[in-house]
Amino acid sequence: MAVSKHQGIRYLFGDGSRLVFRLSGTGSVGATIRVYIEQYEKDSSKTGRDSQDALAPLVDVALKLSKMQEYTGRSAPTVIT
């Protein structure tokens, strides 16, 4: 885990995957929580998979680490890009 002051929290994993959590907006009330999830895949036969399916295990890790539902009351994102 790495902390960049006022920029968010970044988790780096041994396999090259990473999670980044940061606030986006002008203040702490009504701000958007952005979660970036990246995974390295060395098997080229798996690179065409649907992103949501491929990243599902990391999404689970991100939700457990952040306790997102506990803190926000949300069980699903409002935007996925």
From TrEMBL:
<dbReference type="InterPro" id="IPR045244">
    <property type="entry name" value="PGM"/>
</dbReference>
<dbReference type="GO" id="GO:0004614">
    <property type="term" value="F:phosphoglucomutase activity"/>
</dbReference>
<dbReference type="InterPro" id="IPR036900">
    <property type="entry name" value="A-D-PHexomutase_C_sf"/>
</dbReference>
<dbReference type="GO" id="GO:0005829">
    <property type="term" value="C:cytosol"/>
</dbReference>
<keyword id="KW-0479">Metal-binding</keyword>
<protein>
    <recommendedName>
        <fullName>Phosphoglucomutase</fullName>
    </recommendedName>
</protein>
<dbReference type="GO" id="GO:0046872">
    <property type="term" value="F:metal ion binding"/>
</dbReference>
<dbReference type="Pfam" id="PF24947">
    <property type="entry name" value="PGM1_C_vert_fung"/>
</dbReference>
<dbReference type="GO" id="GO:0005975">
    <property type="term" value="P:carbohydrate metabolic process"/>
</dbReference>
<keyword id="KW-0413">Isomerase</keyword>
<keyword id="KW-0460">Magnesium</keyword>
